[in-house]
Design a protein that fits this description.
Reutilizes the intact tripeptide L-alanyl-gamma-D-glutamyl-meso-diaminopimelate by linking it to UDP-N-acetylmuramate. Belongs to the MurCDEF family. Mpl subfamily. This protein has 456 residues and is an alpha/beta fold. It has three domains: 2-90, NAD(P)-binding Rossmann-like Domain (Rossmann fold, 3-Layer(aba) Sandwich), CATH 3.40.50.720; 102-310, 3-Layer(aba) Sandwich (UDP-N-acetylmuramoyl-L-alanine:D-glutamate ligase); 321-455, Mur ligase, C-terminal domain (Protein-Tyrosine Phosphatase, Chain A), CATH 3.90.190. It is 32% helix and 23% strand. The strands form four sheets. Strands 8-7-9-6-12-13-14-15-16-17 form a ten-stranded mixed beta sheet. Strands 18-19-23-20-21-22 form a six-stranded mixed beta sheet, with helices on both faces. Strands 3-2-1-4-5 form a five-stranded parallel beta sheet, with helices on both faces. It is globular and about 55 Å long.
Length: 456
């Protein structure tokens, strides 16, 4: 079968392309202004990639067109699909029909930490010899690819609450029908499609409704929005997670041994299961790891084995990924784009390098950020950095300077060149520079590396 994917370079759609290729299909796709790592990964796998949208991309005529959720009416390729009466479907529906149906699906949902936690869970199952399939919204460094079919009955999927397609406005995860579900956390995001938190909670409850009675939900005990979702009704046992502080009823708990989260103990029903020692930092990642251990336990992996697996976990590209160390300066690439994620990333790094200077460079690029929904939280979330630079892109129609006027550590830059000039002028040995964006950020990472190397 010839499958053509419109919007192929999104992390989810690119993963579908890899799965379709592994199933033996002929795969092609199109996207606008693709950027690494997905375009590179697709090309390495021999998938034909067209870098613009055009009716000509549908020649020869594919057997099935899979439409990404970023594609809307008016797109010339989609208009041609509709006018020619070609067979089409959404990415999530294709995934269920061709991959998930009949498998034990382990889904990871939540506003933050989905990609990292999905990767952790897949690595735990892999280390236990279960050879799971997976689809991750990024590139897990332990695997080197964002998706694979696997050889067993387990499939781990990142379960996004974003809408499915222009013709299906339900959340993607409604299609997946998991047996095991991690609900990591929940707060307001995706303001371009959800009017308020309650609308997102209704979609999460749709997911909860699809989990069988002999399945399992893993959820943090102290997340109020998720608690409200579960109070709407659930028919599946819930294993709660929490810090080991003696409060609540959580079955799974963690106790930090290092302030930066690089070592922590895991408890199940009050019994010490072991100690995780890994390369990650931050309480958010400790919580992610604990949830992955709990979900893997439901699939039959003993906690001790899961704990050992996390010791060799390498995280995901663009999750506080070290890009370079130049003249004593460490450069990181990070995907954080929501205030909570930005603050958590900086908190984790600060715990690891308590005396060093941290410089955060942020591109407010997500749809929610572009709308200015979180403008009033921007200054606060960057307080973990000694110095912060925010890019005021031309298309951003709200004033970052006004929103952060009282923050002495923040400067606003209207061009990438001005950011680069300031970094080269101010950076000194011992600094940690974190670039934060859910896009390519105009190649600022590479430009900074090159400029610092030239300084010698």
């Amino acid at each position: 079968m010839h499958i053509h994917i419109v919007g192929i370079c999104g992390t989810f759609m690119g993963g579908l392309a890899l799965l379709a290729k592994q199933l033996g299909h002929q795969v092609s796709g199109s996207d606008q202004n693709p950027y690494p790592p997905m375009n590179v990964l697709l090309q390495e796998q021999g998938i034909l990639l067209k870098t613009s949208y055009s009716p000509a991309n549908l020649e020869p005529v594919p057997d099935l067109v899979v439409v990404g959720n970023a594609i809307s009416r008016g797109n010339p390729e989609i208009e041609a699909v509709l006018n020619q009466g070609l067979a089409y479907t959404s990415g999530p529906q294709w995934l269920y029909n061709y991959v998930l149906k009949g498998n034990w699906v382990l889904a990871v949902a939540g506003t933050h930490g989905k990609t990292t936690t999905t990767s952790m869970l897949a690595w735990i199952l892999e280390s236990a010899g279960l050879k799971p399939g997976f689809l991750v919204g990024g590139v897990p460094l332990n695997f080197g690819v964002s998706a694979r079919l696997g050889e067993g009955r387990f499939f781990v999927v990142e379960a996004d609450e974003y809408d499915t397609a222009f013709f299906d406005k339900r959340s993607k995860f409604v299609h997946y029908r998991p047996r095991t579900a991690i609900l990591n956390n929940l707060e307001f995001d995706h303001a371009d499609i959800f009017p308020d938190l309650a609308a997102i909670q209704r979609q999460f409850h749709q997911l909860v409704r699809s989990i069988p009675g002999n399945g399992l939900i893993v959820a943090p005990e102290r997340d109020l929005p998720l608690a409200e979702v579960l109070r709407m009704g659930h028919w599946t046992p819930v294993d709660y997670t929490a810090p080991d502080d003696g409060e609540g009823r959580a079955a799974w708990r963690y106790r930090l041994l290092n302030a930066d989260g690089s070592r922590f103990q895991v408890f199940h029903e009050g019994t010490l299961c072991g100690t995780v020692e890994w390369s990650l930092s931050g309480r958010h990642n400790v919580a992610n790891g604990l949830a992955a251990i709990a979900a893997a336990h439901h699939a039959g992996v003993e906690p001790g084995r899961a704990i050992a697996a996390l010791g060799s976990f390498k995280n995901v590209k663009r999750r506080l990924e070290v890009r370079a160390r130049i003249n004593g300066i460490t450069l990181y690439d990070d995907f954080a784009h929501h205030p909570t994620a930005i603050a958590a990333t900086l908190e984790g790094l600060r715990a690891r390098v308590p005396a060093a200077r941290i410089i955060a460079v942020l591109e407010p690029r997500s749809n929610t950020m572009r709308m200015g929904v979180h403008a009033d939280r921007l200054a606060e979330c960057l307080q973990g950095a000694d110095r912060a630079m925010i890019y005021q892109a031309p298309e951003l129609d709200w004033d970052i300077r006004a929103a952060t006027a009282n923050a002495a550590n923040i400067s606003v830059c209207r061009s990438l060149d001005s950011i680069l000039e300031q970094l080269v002028r101010e950076a000194r040995p011992g600094d940690h520079i974190v670039f934060m964006s859910n896009g390519g950020f105009g190649g600022i990472h590479e430009k900074t590396e090159q400029a610092l190397r030239r300084l010698g």
